Amino acid sequence: MNSTQQEGSSLLKDLERIKKKTRISNKIINGQLDQIIAEIEEAKINNDFSQLKDKLQNQKPLTKIKQTYNECYAYFSKMGKNMDKLFKKNLQYGQEHVELDSRVLTELIKNHLLRDGEFEAYELLVKESGSEESHFHQFFAEIQTIVKDLKERKLESAILWAEKRHKRSPSNLLYELLKQRVIQLVQTEGINAAVNFMRNSDSFQEQAQGRLYEICLITYSVLLWPNLENTKYYYLYDDERNWPRILNLFLEVASKSQNILIKSEIRTVFSAGCLAMPKLIKYNQITRNRSSEVLTNDIPIDIEIGKDYKYHSFFVCPVSREVTNTDNPPVLLKCGHVISKLSAHKMIANKQKFKCPTCPVETKGADLPELIFI
Ligand SMILES: [Zn+2]
User: What is the pLDDT of residue 97?
Assistant: First the structure.
């Protein structure tokens, strides 16, 4: 078990203790409350409230409740202190020498709020930060409405959105939405409604062109409905799989239409930061006392955080370890490996051909194709 796991397990133990304590406390508190109610009920039945005050004062139910609350709070407070002890001090090391650009940060938070549909919070932030209205505001407002509809399995708004954009930037989305509409009609209004939709919807007719095989599958499935289990058409009616898939496809196409990432940038940065933090802390702890260390934004160690967080927005030459740019772009070698143009020129020097730094394949000449990362 490594140190992070140990820290985690000690917190889990704290949490278990809190859960146990809360269960017992709830029992005690409910018991005391029941007793108060019972005493009041009894007094009411006997129409004699003269003893009630004394009885309640003797039993001290409120004092017992307060005491139980205090005991519970002590457990919470202990866990909070443990968390501070375990993480707070460490995190400082991880973020040393990092200067956050408040303007960039505000933009990131604004976009994040818009993505999550937190429009009120977004507007407040725009006002308080004195920044400009994001040109994504209207886009995200529309997207949020459609996402909400899709989650409620309503397709109309998404179909309308896709129809408007399909001619400009064709994608699979419109067809997938219309197909889902057919399936939904079969499930809710019956076969006739589905067949009518397929016949009368201009969009469906248009999308069906060139998709003969798939249309045949849908038509056969309609004929067999509802006895589809264990047939090859069942996947068409697998709602648990199809609705999330359609929602994801919609988000993907919508993000692409604005050239933005499908996931919130700030959430991605946060998740990537959590993965990188242990190594960053270690690195900063080791180097913080070395006065000779040159502090730059680049970290001289590789931090592997998984392929989900790789975007290829820049390329580091494996020979010179420099980030490529328009003056020194990445070039493709014969074997498929990539290095920077300057490194390639240095390696060629006056020779006819040179060996790839990664594999034994030789590449001829200096006129190598440049790669453009988008
Ligand atoms: Zn190679």
Answer: 66
Predicted pLDDT at 64: 86
Cα 361 to ligand 1 centre (Å): 6
The C-alpha atoms of residue 33 and residue 39 are separated, in whole angstroms, by: 10
- What is the per-residue pLDDT for 216? 92
CA 36 to ligand 1 centroid distance, Å: 82
- Spell out the domain ranges in the chain: 3-94, 137-257, 311-374
Specify the CATH class of 311-374 in words.
alpha beta
Place of tokens 């047939």: 231
Alpha-carbon distances of 120 from 43, 105, 114, 117, 139, rounded to whole Å: 51, 18, 9, 9, 16
87 vs 182, residue with greater confidence: 182
Cα of 338 from ligand 1 centre, angstroms: 8
CA of 349 to the centre of ligand 1 (A): 18
ipTM of the shown complex: 0.95
Distance 359 CA to ligand 1 centre (A): 4
Question: 47 CA to middle of ligand 1, Å?
Answer: 96
Q: What is the pLDDT at residue 96?
A: 66
Burial of 355 (0-12, 13-18, 19+ CB in 10 A): middle
> Minimum mean pLDDT among 77-81, 122-126, 259-263: which range?
259-263
